[in-house]
Design goal:
Layout: E1 2-6, E2 9-13, E3 34-37, H1 49-53, E4 57-65, H2 75-80, E5 84-87, E6 92-95, H3 106-111, E7 115-123, H4 133-136, E8 142-145
Antiparallel strand pairs: 1-2, 3-8, 4-7, 5-6
């Protein structure tokens, strides 16, 4: 803190933060910064609005995994769940979509353990670092580090 003395008056200067994280932007201003994080996988969404809002994902009918709760599992329980797999790079459990999604016929899908024929979320979510600052905060798993 800086203190200036002029005659009998004391003027104080208070240091202010220049952080812009979470602050609203002026009208018409575009966000700036770097998009960071790990985008939520398309396979981790049930079909629906969340899937459609995640860039790179598409909701469509096909063979899907019956394990939508994989993301809540720890490493040891993930490895024994047939439709889940441990993603080492992200240190999280995800749906092992590769088991079911290649199956193109309904009968074969329904005959496969851990798979069902249903509307599912498919595709590959766009990575956080590949998004523009204005797209970043709409991608589940990503956050904008403002400059």
């Amino acid at each position: 803190m800086l203190r200036l003395l002029f005659g009998s008056f004391v003027i104080l200067s208070v240091a202010c933060s220049t952080s812009t994280v979470g602050e609203p932007l002026p009208d018409g201003a575009a966000p700036t910064g770097v998009c960071r994080g790990i985008a939520k996988s398309c396979w981790d969404f049930e079909s629906g609005v969340g899937c459609l809002e995640q860039q790179g994902c598409l909701a469509e009918l096909g063979c899907v995994s019956e394990a939508p709760g994989c993301s809540a599992l720890g490493r040891s329980t993930c490895s024994v769940q047939p439709s889940c797999r441990w993603e080492e790079s992200a240190s999280r459990c995800t749906v092992d979509a590769t088991r079911c999604t290649p199956i193109e016929e309904r009968a074969s899908c329904e005959a496969s353990d851990g798979c069902r024929w249903d509307l599912g979320c498919r595709g590959e979510a766009i990575a956080c670092e590949d998004l523009t600052p204005s797209e970043c905060e709409d991608q589940d798993g990503c956050a904008l580090e403002r400059r």
